[in-house]
Amino acid sequence: MSTLSLAVRDSSTMLRRNLLHARRYPSMTLNLLLTPVMLLLLFVYVFGDVMSAGIGGGGSDRAAYIAYVVPGILLMTIGGTVVGTAVSVSNDMAEGIIARFRTMAIHRGSVLVGHVVGSVLQSVLSVVLVGAVGVTIGFRATGAGVLEWLAALGLIVLFATALTWIAVGMGLISPNAEAASNNALPMILLPLLSSAFVPVDAMPGWFQPVAEYQPFTPAIETLRGLLLGTGIGHNGWLAVAWSLGLTVLGYLWATSRFDRDPA
C-alpha cells in the first residue's frame, strides 16, 4: 500500500475509535451540549425582552432577538464541543495508549487526524441539535437560500477544524484531564465576550476592541448574515482568515508537540 493509503486507512481506524469512545461515554458530550442550550433558553425567555428592547432602541421584540442570538449560540456550541477534544487527547497521553500506538505499524499522524475529524463531526452534529432547539423556539433562517446554507455549513466546518486543532494542542500540553479542561476554557469564554448576545456597537467603548478583534465575532457576524440575509461586509474574509490562521497554528503546534514526546 502507498503511504497515502496507509494514512487514510489508519486515520479511519482512529476516527472509529474516537467515535466509539464518544458513544460509550456520552456524559461529557451531553454536558457540553447542555451549556449552549441553557444559555439559549436563558437569554431568550429570561432576558429576551430586555435585550431586544436595548438593541432595538426601546421596542421589545423577542422574535427579533431569537434571530439575532441563535447564530452566536451555534458557534459557541463549537467552542464547547472542542473542550471535550482537549480532555480526550489529554487522557490518551496520560493513560499511555499513545505510547502503545507508537510501537505499532500505524501512520504516526493518524492518531491526531482521528481526534480532529471525530471532533469536527461531533461539532457539526452538536450545531444541528442546538439549531433544532433554536427552530423549536422560533428561529427562522429567513435570508438563506441553497448557496447561503452551503456557505454556512462550510464556515461551521472550517471554524470547527480551526478550534479543534487548537484544542488538540491544549490537550497535548496538559498533564491531566482537569488541566486540559481549564486550558481549553477560553473556547467557552471568548464567545461570551463577542457579538453573540449584543452588537459590538452597544458595548462600552473600552470593551469594544476585546469583542471586535477576536475570531468569534467575525465568524458570528458572517453566519448571522448568511442565515438572515443581513450585510456581512469585511467579516466574511476575516472569519476565513481567522479560521485558516488558527488551523495552521494549531496544526503546527499540535504536531510539533506530538513529535517531541518520547517514542
Short key terms for the protein model shown above:
single chain; 263 residues; Transport permease protein
Write a structural description.
This protein is an all-alpha fold. The chain has one domain (3-259). 77% of the residues lie in helices and 0% in strands. The chain has twelve helices and no strands. It has helices at residues 3-24, 27-45, 48-56, 62-95, 97-102, 110-136, 146-173, 177-183, 186-192, 208-212, 216-228, 235-260. The longest helix has 34 residues, at 62-95. The two termini are 24 Å apart. Residues 27-261 form the ABC transmembrane type-2 domain. It comes from Streptomyces alkaliterrae. This is Transport permease protein.
Total domain modules: 1
Helix-strand category: mainly alpha
Helix percent band: over 70%
Give the helix tally: 12
Radius of gyration: 19 Å
Straight-line distance between termini? 24 Å
Which sheet architecture does the biggest sheet show? none
Which regions are unreliable across 5 or more consecutive residues at pLDDT < 50? Answer: none
Topology pattern, helix = H, strand = E = HHHHHHHHHHHH
Strand content: under 5%
InterPro entries: ABC2_TM, ABC2_TM_bact-type, ABC_2_transport, Nod_factor_ABC_transporter
Protein name: Transport permease protein
Pfam family, one: ABC2_membrane
Family: Belongs to the ABC-2 integral membrane protein family.
In a nutshell, what does this entry contain?
The chain is mostly helical. The protein has helices at residues 3-24, 27-45, 48-56, 62-95, 97-102, 110-136, 146-173, 177-183, 186-192, 208-212, 216-228, 235-260.
